[in-house]
Design brief:
single chain; alpha/beta; Rossmann fold; 2 domains; seven-stranded parallel sheet; five-stranded parallel sheet; 38% helix
Length: 356
């Protein structure tokens, strides 16, 4: 097919927040390869605003999983009518399988999940990964047969002006101006096993306030609000809890104002990476081979090197030791060292990881 032909392309990646952001380099490369193409995207409704921020997307199919199978049938009917030239399933679960099968597409491309290698690593600690492929590159590799190659130009993550303006007003209302050094604490994750301790975040925040004269902004969803309130209550002034108050893109706007971000393995981590922020990433039950470690040189991973890691592909399994020690035994001192290394550009940051 000629590069100047009008090609109809469908990309399927329904969740989660971090995974969707990691598709953006792939989308940019598709647009560059087929500049006159129509590039459509299927995503869950709660993440629609993220996809809407991508200028390369032509049309979005969003669905609410609470509406059941009928919602998928509706979307599949729309897909069949479009007769796409290419469908990229870069989710690869039962829903995406249903949507791509008998879709009438000219060609269907999948991304490799290395399920056997992942299974052996998680359940038998047998590491057969010859190379480590970040997830965003695995998405790009799904288009190798069409000539897609990583260009190393980042994520094309653009925050809407309205979101930035709302954040500016909220900061002004709380008496925070541009002269204040902001540090973002992102205490949540989709799975409790990936969350660092409340006590750790409190001690770290107190250090950042005393040593850097920082103001702390706590970012997360409604589920994270209690821990945000606990941190705020323990430290008092200089701490602002925004959990549950902001949309995803407004949260991104707030992260863009920060000079330092401390996050668990979750969506805010990938937002901070996409914005080229200095990031201290806390990893527990998952490991680099699974593809979700930070990729920027301004990011550092803090992790404990335990033989029981990884215990799942994304943190969904409960700790069989009942201790969650992989994440909970990361000390505030460990994270303080990572943060100071990031801010002062020490050699530790160049190593990309602080292993304990």
């Amino acid at each position: 097919m000629n590069i100047n032909d009008k090609v109809k392309i469908l990309v399927i990646r329904m969740s989660s927040l971090g995974d969707i952001i990691l598709t953006f380099p792939f989308i940019r490369l598709l647009r560059r390869k087929f500049p006159n193409s129509e590039i459509d995207f299927i995503v869950k409704s709660e993440f629609r605003e993220v996809v809407e921020s991508n200028k390369h997307i032509s049309h979005i199919y969003s669905f609410d999983k609470n509406n059941g199978f009928g919602e998928l049938k509706r979307i599949k009917s729309l897909i069949k009518q479009q007769k796409y030239n290419y469908v990229f399933d870069i989710h690869r679960n039962l829903r995406s399988y249903y949507l791509r099968m008998f879709s009438g597409a000219g060609r269907v491309f999948l991304y490799k999940k290395y399920r056997i290698r992942r299974f052996l690593l998680i359940y038998f600690k047998l590491n057969l990964y010859k190379t480590i492929t970040p997830v965003y590159k695995a998405y790009i590799n799904a288009g190798r047969k069409l000539g897609l190659v990583d260009d190393g130009k980042g994520f094309d993550f653009v925050i809407p002006t309205a979101s930035l303006e709302k954040v500016d007003k909220l900061l002004e209302k709380r008496g925070i101006n541009d002269a204040v050094f902001l540090a973002a604490i992102c205490p949540g994750s989709g799975h409790r096993t990936k969350c660092w301790t409340e006590e750790g975040f409190i001690e770290l925040s107190n250090f950042l306030i005393s040593e850097l004269n920082a103001s702390i902004v706590i970012i997360g969803d409604t589920d994270d609000r209690p821990i945000g309130e606990a941190i705020k209550k323990s430290l008092g002034s200089g701490v602002f809890n925004f959990c549950g108050e902001l949309s995803i893109m407004e949260s991104a706007g707030l992260i863009s104002k920060c000079g330092l971000v401390i996050a668990n393995d979750a969506g805010p981590l990938h937002i901070a990476e996409a914005l080229n922020k200095k990031v201290a990433a806390l990893f527990g039950p998952t490991v680099e081979e699974l593809g979700y470690f930070p990729v920027n040189t301004q990011s550092v991973v803090v992790q404990r090197m335990l033989r029981c890691r990884p215990c799942s592909n994304n943190g969904w399994r409960s700790c069989y030791k009942k201790t969650n020690e992989c994440i909970e035994r990361i000390t505030p001192k460990d994270v303080m060292n990572a943060c100071m290394g990031l801010l002062h550009n020490t050699s530790e940051v160049g190593q990309k990881e602080i292993n304990i």
